[in-house]
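Hi, here's the filled form for the chain we discussed.

Project: internal
Contact: R.S.
Residues: 264
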Amino acid sequence: MKSSLCFALPLCCALRLSAAVPSVDGAWIDLTHAFSADTIYWPTADPFVLTTEFSGRTPQGFFYVAKKFSASEHGGTHLDAPIHFGEGRQSADELPLDRLIGPAVCIDVSAPCLANPDYEISVTDLQGWERIHGKIPDDSIVLLHTGYARFWPDRKKYLGTELRGPEGVAQLSFPGLAPAAAEWLVQNRKVRSIGLDTASIDYGKSQKYQTHVVLLNRNIPVFENVMNLDQVPATGAQVVALPMKIKGGSGGPLRIIAWVPKKS
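And the returned structure, exactly as it came back:
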């Protein structure tokens, strides 16, 4: 019995691992904007700064480069951890990995979003997608393709304004997910996390950030300023979204990628 059990356990683990590894018939897509002086941050946040501490040949004769950076948690491609808007909810280091890795659906709402910079993605949009592609599967990562990544890093086109500070916040204009649609998702669909290719899950003119409140209070993390969603199919992709593991962090820089199966 013992020898049979010893054989069965590794076999079981191997089967689970093989099921989680993507098929070789596909490609990895980078969904992350590079961080640089051009990276878009919230109008009230300090920009990304990268400075060189040393670059060149050392006295010992070998080449060496070392740099340091400073950045807000919320800028560029980044995570919103639940604690960002949810008192007592999970911080960046507390998020379980199964909230950050898994199968994804990509909902293309670029047509209405590009036609109206103040568009709020609605329940009707989500249900319209489901009529074509089927019900959003349980435990999915939901990606919302607004088309706004094409404007990066033009602050005027991407945010609706080049102004900084509180004056810039007052002039923000870009699409987001309507609070009612966020509530519909958490009430009717079991989602792991939600990402989109704009600066905020709430649309730019939001004053109360209700979509943040709805999602983050349910410990559903949010990925913002994602890119290349035009390369992610409606169904079939696998996403890996790993943020900087900041202890107690309300968010942080994010490297997010998607495995996209080859079209048959």
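Let me know if anything looks off before we file it.
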